Amino acid sequence: MSVLSLRQPMTFEDGFPRVVHLGFYLTMAACTVRMLSYGGGVSQLDVIRLVAVAAFCSLYAGGVAWAKPGRQQVAWLGTMIAAWTPLTLTTPCFSWSAIPLFFLVLIVLPMRLAVPLVGYLAAVAAVVGEFHARTNWDPAPLVAPIAIATMSMFNYRRLHHENVRRQELIDDLMRARDALAESERAAGVLQERVRLSREIHDTLAQGLSSMHMLLNAADQEWDADNGKARAHVRQAAVAARENLAEARRFVHDLAPPALDERSLPEALRKVADAVQVRVEGTPRKLDPGVEGELLRIAQGALANAAQHARAGTVVVTLTYLPDSVTLDVMDDGVGFDPTSPNAGRGRGYGLKAIRQRAESLGGTATVDSVPGEGTVVAVKVYA
């Protein structure tokens, strides 16, 4: 985008340009009076000069009215300066009209182009004034300071108002930034609460449920098979230790203990030691956050299978693809109808947490199930 296209349109409705236009016509009027006072009468040369002045003023008015911002205004301004030069060289008093042209150049052009043109106008006016000084009465020195002071005052007021508006805009942006930061903070708090609820459900709650089931089984089998009951108690103790590690992780915000110095396949085999774990493709190291979430998804799916599926076989399959990783947890339990309004009732927060975890990674989670034929939880993430 060119610099010129960024300039605002110059119209008579704009405050400062309107003052520039008025100053131009007043200066031209004063210079015309000065020109006619040279010889004490109106000569044929004065008539030609008056026609040139009228054409110059018409060119100015036409450009203000019809020249569009951009290339048209630049062409118009160039024509104005080209016409001003011979008019000033032949009639030196018109060098004063360079003053409104200074401001006009600064309005229309960017600074890198305006400065050379202002220098040109000033140089021509200075040279003409030096070599063509007149002794006749000249109203221009009286009018010019007033015009310069007026335009400078309006220019200052315009800059002041722009600074005030700019400061108001900055204040609005600062308030909007603070509001956005507060909104993001609140959203972050809510997101963290959701994350913690998933963590607690998939770790502590599932671990406590597992301990409850193991201890209940041990109590029922204590008299009939003391050895088997003790095995259940030992498994419950292992689950208690792991839950304690999870609780400490919440405090220290560490990675899942099962992933400490282990790969994701090894961690899956540890948390799913009673089920079959398959790994397909070439295992690779994933982002710790991705591995942690996949491990939690597997734990949640296994907990659902243990509590609700009454399955005889559960298989976990981790597949490494070139641009993604899939995790499938399949059981041959009682299943359910996913299209039913009551689908998954009794499975608590588990399936919802699995979907939320997958979506947080930019992936997908699907649940396929048929009553009496088991359930498959399939998760795919791009990593």
- The SSE order reads HHHHHHHHEHEEHEE
Helix content: 55-70%
Strand line-up in the sheet with most strands: 1-2-3-5-4
Amount of beta strand: 5-15%
By helix and strand content, what is the structural category?
alpha+beta
Radius of gyration: 43 Å
Shape: rod-shaped
Discrete helix count = 10
- Poorly predicted regions are 1-13
The averaged pLDDT comes out at 78
What do these coordinates show?
This protein is α+β, with helices and mostly antiparallel strands and 383 residues long. Among the domains are: 135 residues, no CATH class; 122 residues, Heat Shock Protein 90 (2-Layer Sandwich), CATH 3.30.565.10. 64% of the residues lie in helices and 8% in strands. The protein is built from ten helices and five strands. A five-stranded mixed beta sheet has the order 1-2-3-5-4, covered by helices on one side. The longest helix has 82 residues. The two termini are 39 Å apart. This is Oxygen sensor histidine kinase NreB. Keywords: 4Fe-4S, Coiled coil, Cytoplasm, Iron, Iron-sulfur, Kinase, Membrane, Metal-binding, Transferase, Transmembrane, Transmembrane helix, Two-component regulatory system.
Q: What tags apply to this protein structure?
A:
single chain, 383 residues, alpha+beta, Heat Shock Protein 90, 5-stranded mixed sheet, 10 helices, 5 strands, 64% helix, disordered N terminus
